[in-house]
Amino acid sequence: MTGIVVLGSTNMDLVTYTARAPKLGETVTGREFVTVPGGKGANQAVAAARAGGAVAMIGAVGSDDFGTVLRHTLEASCVDTDLLRTAEGSSGTAHIVVDDDGGNAIVVVPGANGTVTDLGPGDEALITTADALLLQLELPLSAVIAGAEAARRHGVRTILTPAPAQPLPPELLAATDLLVPNEHEAAVLTGIADPHAAAGALLRQVPEVVITLGQAGSLHASRTTEPLLVPAPHVTAVDTTAAGDTFVGALAVALVEGRPLPEALRWASAAAALCVQRPGASTSMPYRTEIEAS
User: Fold this and answer.
1) Which residues are catalytic?
2) Annotated binding residue 278
3) How many domains does the chain have?
4) pLDDT tens digit string along 178-188?
5) Residue 276 is part of a domain; what is its CATH number?
6) Residue 178 CA to chain centroid, in angstroms?
7) What is the pLDDT of residues 119-156, one digit of tens each?
8) Do 183 and 190 form a contact (C-beta atoms < 8 A)?
């Protein structure tokens, strides 16, 4: 059995490090530029695999050099790429500015990801083998909905990261078991800035929510339990680019392994804390031994 299937994006991250991000119409000088394999789907797949999960990836890379690197990066982390398509043309790219405080601003160009509009041959069969399906919103919504509904038909747990933040169709919410937004995404989805109140509003749409709160940790809420706030380890952030994806990947592994919820949230927070202390996306994600030792 494949423990975790990820239906999501693969991007090459084009990252510029600078003292501060430019304002509209302004030019600033950066100190470093790097290319790093990423994309929210691929990030979550790598994070889950490094955390010890058996992971398979559904999505698409381009026929360009970036596509070759993206596929190799997933395979190097032991992610099954048998159903990762190759689309003619460019791979997805993410253009990222990281400032001295570790904050980031990102522009995503979908490329090959935009060709994934539905499940392809073998995709649903693979989903049926999983304990959990991880979804994000960097693929066309039609594919995300198709994946979630396939998982629901076969009793597979769906974990949705609603990023980039956008209104969620009722049919996607109806097929979502666990929603994992950050504070900003929760506010966009509900119009409510306070995470506790936002969590309550989201529970009217999905049965379970985890809102990530950055340095403040994470907030779990469900329709059947009291809210649970789990603090995060105190660390100095270097680059927060893949922190949320690392959290979700590690959390999925912990839940699939049957860990108690408080332990699963602490474990995921430890993984994210290790991630933000390193530059890059997939390159910054910790391995299971590192998480266990932290």
Assistant:
1) 245
2) yes
3) 1
4) 999 999 999 99
5) 3.40.1190.20
6) 13
7) 999 999 999 999 999 999 999 999 999 999 999 999 99
8) no
